[in-house]
UniProtKB/TrEMBL annotation:
One of its GO terms (cellular component) is bacterial-type flagellum basal body, rod. NCBIfam families: FlgC (TIGR01395). The lineage of its organism: Bacteria, Pseudomonadati, Pseudomonadota, Betaproteobacteria, Burkholderiales. Residues 94-137 form the Flagellar basal-body/hook protein C-terminal domain. It comes from Paucibacter sediminis. InterPro entries: Flag_bb_rod_N, Flg_bb/hook_C_dom, FlgC. GO terms for biological process: bacterial-type flagellum-dependent swarming motility. It comes from the Bacteria. This is Flagellar basal-body rod protein FlgC.
């Protein structure tokens, strides 16, 4: 596997983790937003990742795969429905709808995404160091 392929794989992983962090930020920002009806209520979003097979034959193809973000989908979990007749957004029955965002799960996911991003930054740093070492071999 070439340094270029390693960099492409790490770069695609960093892009995927950036999308993941953006969806987490959106979910956390809207975690407490209220709505008077179910249709207008914010729903938690999650990115869908897939491995994009490397082009090549034999060992080159098995060596690694890039990450591709297929889509960002809305969660199908039930919304929180709370009886708050005094709330300005309450419907006729006094119900207010809140997003299906689990803040604890989102924070855990954020830590995981951050660690994955940092790991790929480290991979790129190691590739750069290896390339520089190769260049120094020719100096002697």
């Amino acid at each position: 596997m070439s340094f270029k392929q390693i960099s492409q794989i790490a770069g695609s992983a960093m892009s995927a983790q950036t999308v993941r962090m953006n969806t987490i930020a959106s979910n956390l920002a809207n975690a407490q937003s209220a709505s008077g009806n179910e249709a207008d209520t914010y729903r938690a979003r999650k990115p869908v990742f897939a491995a994009l097979a490397a082009s090549g034959q034999g060992e080159q193809q098995l060596a690694g795969s890039r990450v591709q973000v297929l889509d960002v989908v809305e969660s199908s979990e039930a919304l929180r429905k709370v009886y708050e007749p005094g709330h300005p957004l309450a419907n006729a029955e006094g119900m207010v709808f809140y997003p299906n965002v689990n803040s604890v799960a989102e924070m855990t996911d954020m830590l995981s995404a951050s660690r994955a991003f940092e790991s790929n930054v480290e991979v790129l740093g190691r590739v750069k160091s290896m390339q520089q070492s190769l260049l120094r071999l020719g100096e002697g």
